[in-house]
From TrEMBL:
Residues 214-395 form the AAA+ ATPase domain. Gene3D superfamilies: 3.30.230.10, P-loop containing nucleotide triphosphate hydrolases. This is Magnesium chelatase family protein. Belongs to the Mg-chelatase subunits D/I family. ComM subfamily. GO terms for molecular function: ATP binding. Pfam families: ChlI, Mg_chelatase, Mg_chelatase_C. It comes from Agrococcus jenensis. InterPro entries: AAA+_ATPase (IPR003593), CHLI-like (IPR045006), Mg_chelat-rel (IPR004482), Mg_chelat-rel_C (IPR025158), Mg_chelatse_chII-like_cat_dom (IPR000523), P-loop_NTPase (IPR027417), Ribosomal_Su5_D2-typ_SF (IPR020568), Ribsml_uS5_D2-typ_fold_subgr (IPR014721).
Amino acid sequence: MSGFGRAACIALQGLAGISVQIEVHAASGLPAVFIVGLPDQAVRQAQHRTWSAIARMGIAAPSGRVVINLTPASLPKAGTHFDLAIAIAVLRATGVVPPDDGETALIGELGLDGRLRPVTGTLPLARAAAEEGRTRIVVPTGSVGEASLVEGIRVLGAPSLAHAAALLGAELDPEPVDAVPAPAAVPRMHADLDLADVVGNRDAVQALEIAAAGAHHLMMVGPPGAGKTMLAMRLPGILPALDTDAALQVASLRSLAGEPPPSTLDVLPPFEHPHHSATAVSLIGGGSGAIRPGAAARATHGVLFLDEAPEFPRAVLDMLRQPLESGTITIHRAIGVATFPARFQLLLAANPCPCGLFGSGECTCAPQQRRRYFGRLSGPLLDRVDLQVRVDRVAPGADGARRTTAEASARVAAARERAAQRLAGTGWTAMGHVPGPWLRRNLPLDRALLEPLERAVERGALTMRGMDRAIRVAWTAADLDGVAGPTRTHIGRALSLRKGIPA
């Protein structure tokens, strides 16, 4: 006796999805199960979960020779989300479930009791299924909310393999079972923070506003307790809200990284805050099995905040140079290549010296120690940071910030709208994204305005790339002031914010 069954699933390479056909051929002969098509260890172990789950349905699994083929065979397959598709293909090979309709994708991990468990990356898998032209997707009941965030595809939830088989036309009357719930979403700690809580440091608040208005990278240097982290955590609140596509991309990256899924789309820009002991893999992404996004990718459309930046390994920090320029991260591994978006705002914070008191107290560090401390931040990395500002401790009774988060957000939104009109048709939405050659060619400034920047280049205080970045900051400052273009005041402000940290 022989039979053939087929089912559809999705494989991910980064956020890109590739349709995978599961083919099962069951034939008579000595008992043996072969899974082919470059499966990883988790996919190979699906045999045991599948056979146990089928037995729990009261159905005899194939007892002869079974070949399970995952096509395309040249594509590596990783993860437990193939379990449900493999099980349904086996049930189709035995005649329990009707043949594949060509419209349904199947995603889910099987427990030995036959229940379906939510899997990492359900949202990007569902998005990929919709983009592949599938009209419906069957997922574990606990993943229905996450998968339903994707428009254009019908989501069916099943608590067990038996319920999934019944949804696909099997003549079964499965008993009710308790669905495995998805992990609860963790509240975002920076969602309700207000800029009005910041006391003093008006220059730093202004720099934060310029950074938000132009998507510029920012570095803050100051002693411990000056409020650098407090300022950083309020940046997402004054950034423009995410549109639907950006929010879906952010949620997909978080889902792929294994974070609890959201029940609704979160339009607040993400805020990633890795510890200074973070490895290259945790910051950039990778892994020995499936390639997962790191903190830089998860910060897409939001903020990557590196506190105590000089404490990070220099080699790890320098890995950010490429995504800062291109807005993407491409990771090459033996199992394949994955590309993730990485269009984030880099926000660095640092003490002025190892003891933290240089410029604001009795510093005990020798000049050589200070140079060595900041030498961990390479020149090419700092050259990509548009704004550099000093943050000092404030005295008791100092004035609060001039604006609340709502007021600053409104100014930022108006400045972004002016920039978007200027950049219409280019694909860029903020001045911080504009490359230097395009800026010089399409938005030329009067030579007299550029004279202070050219003198700084001649002295070696700025590179040519630094000059381009200062011009972009000047355009952003002009947008915040509601004027048509930069003036000498805006150029001077950009230059002071570019080199605003005393040596």
